[in-house]
Amino acid sequence: MKPKQPERMMGTDRNPYYRWLTRNMVLIVTLVSLAPMLAVSGIILKEFHHSYHEKVHAHFKELVQKHKQNIDAFLSERLGDIRFIASSFTFAQLSDEIFLQEKLKLLQKEFGPVFEDIGVITQDGLQVNYAGPFKLGKALYSEADWFKASIQTDYFISDVFLGLRGLPHFIVAVRQTWKGSPWILRATIDFAAFNSLVENLRIGKTGFAFIVNQQGAFQTKPRFDAIPDRTAFKYFADDGTPGADVIHIVERSDSAGNRNIYAAGFLKNGDWLMICQQSMAEAYADLDHARNIALAVLLAGGLAIIVTAIIVAKKMVSKIAQSDREKELMNQQVIETGKLASIGELAAGIAHEINNPVAIMVEEAGWIQDLLEEEEFHASDNLEEFRRSLNQIKAQGRRCKEITHKLLSFARKTDSRIQDIPLNELIEEVVNLSAQRAKYANVTIQTHLDGDLRPVRASQTELQQVLFNLVNNALDALEPKGGVIDITSRLNGRFVEMEVADNGPGIPRQNLERLFDPFFTTKPVGKGTGLGLSICYGIVKKMGGEVDVRSVVGGGATFCVRIPRPPDES
Amino acid sequence: MTIANILLVDDEVPFVEAMTRRLTRRELHVETAFSGPEALERLEAQGNIEVVILDVKMPVMDGIQTLQAIKSKYPLVEVIMLTGHATVESAIDGMKLGAFDYLMKPCDMEILVDKVKEASQTKRRHEEKIIQARLKAITSRRP
Predict the structure, then answer these.
(1) Other CB atoms closer than 10 Å to residue B104's CB: what's the count?
(2) Chains A–B, number of C-beta pairs less than 8 Å apart
(3) How do the domains of chain A map onto residue ranges?
(4) Which pLDDT belongs to residue A452?
(5) Which of A136, A286, A513, B57 has the greatest CB tally within 10 Å of its CB?
């Protein structure tokens, strides 16, 4: 809720209205400045985020695609090698132990230790010939899964398994026919050689690749320092089509709760899935770094905007408060002028009502005086005393007349129209009206008036009020000890100067600066409103003039009012 | 013998009474009225009034209105305005409307009597001039 505008002025920090105004201004300026900045920054960050993600995804896709092709090529090449041997030589030739060993050596010489061993197996699953480091001659594979699958198809590549030797390996098998009966030539692929194809794929510190089969079993050895997510295959198998030449990218948390990016592509006609994974924190480290810098800049900018908004709002509210104070002062001035006008009307009424009885008294006294001229009274012993007394009545009647005339004169001048004011006459009037108070305060009012002064353009009431206030303040300062007030009028450049000086106790330095502030008073409670001098200041400023004060403690005070001379004169 | 016949107009009865006594003592014949309309009645009834002493501030019909009425009907009768300070402007307006002079209350009796004498003589001079003019007109018409 909006607080009520203050009736009496106080500091902008303490006043609820100005606090509310400051808060609102800060809020509006901050919102208007920050909102577009945040919107633009947000859009840019989002676009950058999107582009960077696409770039990272593209990099992953390219990497997986390349290695997937490499592995597929490796497998098909090894299969091709075995198919070549199976189709080039007969079952009988290959059943010869030395012949088969020669072929194995030839393969190892050509391709390195990729081929671990080689064997010839009948349709019953009996390995009739074997060349290799293990003692697997005459081994029976009729129950082995890979054999059952191989006998059904022309060629077959198994998953990685431990088998009879108890070491991870996989088999490449080719089916041929000899005299109407199928037989199989199989070769064991060295796991280390195959594994190195995938193990060498490293991305940063946390990125690595591995292969799983459809059951989620590892077909390559993952890095020791990482635990790949075993559910990944299921996720990709459900999401994509096994065998399709598409690379899928997924960003998700693993079972340990780490956010990872996964890129996967199917191998071996959809039997295997090659997954490449990297921690998202590392993959997007540059993006995060850029985002952090942007956020820091945004934060600094936001803080700068808020600080600026606070400073600007405080300055503006201070200006508004000052304007309100001036308005308040003007209102007070209007009220004071109104009061003065009312007092004037009252004075006029009283003066007129008193004037008639005084006139009657004077006339009656005159009548008695007339009667005393009769001869019959001449013999009276008290004749002289009667005359003296009647003269006194008439003199006091005239005094009353002068007082009422002064009051009426004052009342007539309570309008604020700008007119030509004879300053010296105005000073004399104020001195006359203050004479009684000065007498009781033991104060002598002296005037030093420049007789050549021409009228100034001002409001009679307002100028009178200024002088009244200054004289009354001087009287207040001199009471009860008494002293002297000097009122001077003179020309000074383009101004007419009116000076009111007293020889009172003076004004302390700390009070001089605040003397013209509204509601500032050093008088006891109930004696002064603190508005007199501020109203004087307002009136003189409105006239285009100046008012200043010179004072030292113990050396009296001098108020100097400068009013511009009329244009034609100056 | 009276110096002049005057009509004193003021709504303050004690003032009128005191003034009447003092003016009469100074060989002036004083008629009194306490309002504008009453003043006009007196003028109508007493054909020999030479000077009217007229207060400016009165109820019903103020001094200015009374002056205008007197001057329109009895242009030769001289009027001295008597005023408080607040109505000096009105008294000056009265001068513009043909009043002989104005004085401020309470006034000095000797000054007032002098003014009355002066006004009375002025009126008499005006009447004399008119009579002379009329006589001249009559004599010039004779063949």
Answers:
(1) 18
(2) 56
(3) 89-193, 418-570
(4) 86
(5) B57
Residue with the two structure tokens 């000899």: A178
Which of A346, A354, A360 to mutate against chain B (most B CBs within 10 Å)?
Answer: A360
The pLDDT of residue A387 is 86
* ipTM, 2 dp: 0.80
State how far the Cα of A473 lies from the Cα of A466, in Å rounded to an integer: 11
CB nearest B12 (choices: A356, A367, A401): A356
Strand A207-213 and strand A272-279: the pairing is antiparallel
Nearest to A366 among B14, B22, B84 (CB): B22
Question: In terms of Cα–Cα distance, which of A534, A466, A533 is closest to A496?
Answer: A466
Nearest CA to A474 among A427, A437, A526, A432? A437
Q: Which two tokens stand for residue A240?
A: 């994509």
Which of A360, A397, A412 minimises the CB distance to B18? A360
Q: Is A187 helix (H, G, I), strand (E, B) or coil?
A: strand
- B54-113 residues touching A, CB cutoff 8 A: 57, 84-86, 104-106, 109
pLDDT in tens, A350-374: 777 788 888 888 888 988 988 888 8
Angstrom distances, CA of residue B65 to CA of A284, A389, B6, B70, B72: 106, 40, 19, 9, 11
The nearest CA of chain A is from the CA of B108 a distance in Å of 9
Whole-angstrom distance, CA of residue A523 vs CA of residue A541: 25
Using DSSP, state whether A487 is helix, strand or coil.
strand
**List of residues 6+ apart from A33 with CB closer than 8 A:** A305, A309
Nearest chain B residue to A350 by CA: give it: B86
3-state secondary structure A196-250: HHHHCCEECCCEEEEEEECCCCECCCCCCCCCCCCCHHHHHHHHCCCCCCCCEEE
Q: How many CB atoms lie within 10 A of CB A159?
A: 19
Average pLDDT over residues A189-209: 82
Q: Answer yes or no: do B12 and A355 touch at CB < 8 A.
A: no
pTM of the full predicted structure?
0.48
CATH 3.30.450.20 fits A89-193, yes or no: yes
Least confident window among A78-92, A212-226, A493-507, B96-110: A212-226
What domain count does chain B have? 1
- Of the candidates B95, B125, B118, the one whose C-alpha atom is nearest the C-alpha of residue B6 is B118
- Which tokens go with A402? 């002068």
Handedness of CA B14, B17, B18, B23 (dihedral sign): positive
B contacts of A351 (beta carbons < 8 Å): 84-86
Distance from C-alpha of A173 to C-alpha of A79, rounded to nearest angstrom: 7
Q: Please tell me which of the candidates A361, A367, A405 has its beta carbon nearest to residue B22.
A: A367
Q: Which of A247, A277, A273, A272 is nearest to A262 (CA)?
A: A277
Q: How does DSSP classify residue A413?
A: T
Report residue A132 as tokens. Answer: 């290799």
CATH of the domain at B59: 3.40.50.2300
Domain that holds residue B14: 4-141
For A477-487, write each residue's pLDDT tens digit.
888 788 999 99
Is B22–A363 a contact, with Cβ atoms under 8 angstroms apart?
yes
